[in-house]
Design brief:
This protein has a domain of about 300 residues: TolB, C-terminal domain (Neuraminidase). About 10% of the residues lie in helices and about 30% in strands. It contains six helices and 28 strands. A four-stranded antiparallel sheet has the order 1-28-27-26. A four-stranded antiparallel sheet has the order 2-3-4-5, with no helix packed on it. A four-stranded antiparallel sheet has the order 6-7-8-9, with no helix packed on it.
């Protein structure tokens, strides 16, 4: 368990390169000791009516405790299990805020209500009392499966001591020589970790069998300032030195922040498999595997700014993060196998939905396919070749579609080159050619003046090779008809008269002969 956010950096001490510790014989491990699952689900635990909640601890049954705001902003202790967040109640009617800090595998919960530490069991909240002095000013932060509770209790003004509570008796754990100490966590063996002021500063401690031991050693990381926040069943302790995450075991101090490549970090909690919460990461002490929590959940989960607070032996992680603009408690749960892969049309090894979410692959038409794949696969038209579907060019504004035909205007016929579809410009004579491109904008039969000009068709009615507009007799052959476009009567010469007379005479006789024979 821990209580701080990540702070600022520091690296190795005295030039000593620290390496990962070997697994110790008898280390308590479980099924998750094989490493960190690369796949997690994440669950929003909700609130008690307000806008903020935080999860502070999770037991091995997946039960989660913490604090959640009600509608008026008052913080209340909660238990979450099987999808339901339950208010734990209060020590007295009208009590101020409450918060639950730890839960063991028996469902016993500890925390504080106002200025009083409590233990909650089977629906009943009970005050733990105090060490001495004025009543109140106590808080409980850790509980093991034996029901032993640790925390802090006030003795006098500016004097606060770590305590161990068991079977109704609160024991002062003392200090390292200063006026204040605090206990954060306890394992099943009754080993307690925390921090205490000493003559040389605030130091991490391990308390067991009535003895508080300073975990700092001269020249090691944390020798000037340190705090211990979590302890597992093997007695491994994690914390920080104000700059980097630390591990204490078997008398050694190990800069696990440096091992993990995270100089700006703190050790928040450690499970029995040796998986450590380091700021927003999981770090496996055995393999030195490091995993960013944000990389373990679905890319489109909507969660950001994850701040983990605790993890259990099943690898579940709880804390607080941002979802839909609100700070909410979360529960991350590892999966035993990879979820079915989702489409990756590029393919570039990144699911399409992840690229949608981070904005690297737009999906302007919301059809679940990146725009570049829409265009490539011809599932969407892209007439202007800008790798954006035409419908999106139109919808988002870069392209107009004045005639609503689904084609950007720049791809429609545009005779005058003004990037406006011809369909949307004036065509006074309705001949299909806009006025700007029509040489005869008011003559539906012509788009250019031609020989005869607008309003006069370039026709040759008599087929004499001369257009009507230039033809003296546009309906008849000029070679046959006279100047007035009437048939001409030929003038006969002497021989012509004789031939005509002879023709008439012969013709008359022939007609008479036919009549006579008849």
């Amino acid at each position: 368990m821990s209580w701080r956010t990540a702070l600022f950096g520091g690296l190795l001490i005295a030039g000593v390169v620290l390496t990962a510790r070997p697994a110790a014989a008898g280390d308590a491990v479980d099924a998750r000791s094989a490493g960190i699952s690369p796949w997690y689900t994440i669950t929003d635990l909700g609130t008690l009516g307000g806008s903020v909640s935080v999860a502070l601890a999770v037991n091995d049954l997946g039960q989660v405790v913490g604090g959640a705001d009600r509608v008026d902003g008052l913080r209340l202790a909660f238990l979450w299990e099987n999808g339901v967040m339950t208010y734990l109640g209060n020590l007295a009617p009208g009590q101020t805020s409450t918060e639950a800090w730890d839960i063991n595998d028996n469902g016993q919960i500890v925390g504080f209500a106002g200025l009083n530490a409590f233990i909650w069991e089977n629906g009943t909240m009970t005050a733990l009392g105090h060490l001495s002095g004025p009543a109140g000013n106590t808080a409980a932060f850790g509980i093991n499966n034996a029901g032993q509770v640790v925390g802090i209790s006030g003795l006098a003004v500016a004097i606060n001591h770590a305590f161990l509570w068991e079977n109704g008796v609160m024991t002062d754990l003392g200090t390292l020589g200063g006026m204040r100490s605090i206990a954060w966590d306890i394992n099943s063996a009754g080993q307690v970790c925390g921090a205490s002021f000493s003559p040389t500063g605030e130091h991490a401690f391990l308390w067991e069998n009535g003895v508080m031991t300073d975990l700092t050693t001269p020249g090691a990381p944390g020798s000037g300032f340190s705090q211990a926040f979590g302890i597992n069943e093997a007695g491994q302790v994690v914390g920080w030195n104000g700059q980097t995450a630390l591990l204490w075991e078997n008398g050694d101090t190990i800069d696990i922040g440096a091992l993990a490549g995270l100089p700006d970090s703190d050790g928040r909690a450690i499970n029995d498999a040796g998986i450590v919460l380091i700021s927003g990461y999981l770090f496996d002490l055995a393999t030195e595997e490091l995993a960013l929590l944000a990389d373990l959940i679905p890319c489109d989960s909507g969660w950001t700014a994850l701040m983990p607070r605790d993890l259990n032996n099943a690898g579940q992680v709880v804390g607080v993060g941002t979802i839909n603009g609100r700070r909410h408690a979360f529960l991350m749960t590892p999966l035993d196998e990879q979820p079915p892969p989702r489409p990756d049309c590029q393919p570039n090894g990144i699911e399409d939905v992840c690229e949608f979410f981070d904005g690297t692959a737009p999906d302007c038409n919301a059809n679940g396919v990146p725009d570049e794949c829409d265009v490539r696969d011809l599932t969407s038209a892209d007439c202007n070749g800008n790798d954006v579907p035409d419908e999106c060019d139109i919808a988002s504004g870069p392209s107009d579609d004045c005639n609503s035909n689904g084609i950007p205007d720049e791809c429609d016929p545009d005779c005058n080159g003004n990037v406006v579809a011809d369909d949307c410009e004036p065509d006074s004579d309705s001949d299909g050619t806009i006025d700007d491109c029509d040489g005869c904008p008011f003559d539906s039969t012509k788009t250019s003046p031609g020989v005869c000009g607008c309003g006069s068709p370039d026709d040759d009615a008599d087929g004499d090779g001369v257009l009507n507009c230039d033809d003296r007799c546009p309906g008849v052959d000029d070679a046959v008809f006279g100047p007035d476009c009437e048939p001409e009567i030929p003038t006969l010469s002497g021989w012509g008269v004789a031939v005509l007379a002879l023709t008439l005479l012969v013709g008359g006789k022939l007609r008479c002969g036919r009549r006579e024979r008849a």
